[in-house]
Write a structure and sequence with these properties.
167 residues, mainly beta, 2 domains, 0% helix
């Protein structure tokens, strides 16, 4: 990304036709001097806008950023955790936090409707292995989340050929 190099401006990724720029699941923003911008959490096509200090926005960019996945945070409604879990504030975690457990057998569940799923987690020195189940059946065992250095939002599992419908 090439920034406007002006700290009084803000870069936004937002759906085409956006006229009000505010933080939310369909938008992402960065300072006018940033070299990177996060992708919005909601699936869809997003255009780049530059908004000045007075709130005036540029026209939508011709280029798009396509977010294929809807992101679901571990604290979202519908996410249930069994066993004992801890919460930690972490600016690099999704929505500024992360939930974790060190007890084997604890698990998290989330029901969704769709044909694709991707599990993002963290990889770091104190991580172990993860099993993923879909519709109660083991989809992949022993996914290794160990890494020599801490990395957030690592795709640990992905399945794209599910039968469409509730899972």
């Amino acid at each position: 990304m090439c920034s406007p190099g002006d700290g009084t401006k803000t870069l936004w990724l937002a759906p085409v036709g956006t006229t009000t720029f505010a933080a939310g699941p369909t938008t992402a923003s960065a300072s006018g001097v940033s070299a990177t911008i996060s992708v919005p959490q909601t699936a869809g096509d997003h255009h780049l806008y530059v908004v000045n200090a007075q709130g005036n926005a540029s026209a939508a960019s011709n280029s798009i950023v396509r977010q294929r996945w809807n992101h679901v945070d571990d604290r979202a409604a519908g996410v249930t955790c069994s066993g004992t879990w801890s919460n930690r504030t972490d600016a690099k975690g999704m929505n500024g936090s992360e939930r974790f457990t060190s007890t084997a057998g604890n698990h998290t569940e989330y029901a969704f409707t769709g044909s694709d799923v991707r599990y993002l987690g963290m990889a770091q020195p104190n991580m172990g292995k993860v099993d993923v189940y879909l519709d109660g059946a083991l989809a992949q065992a022993g996914i290794d989340a160990y890494a020599a250095t801490v990395t957030k939002r690592v795709p640990l599992f992905e399945k794209t050929d599910l039968a469409a419908g509730p899972t």
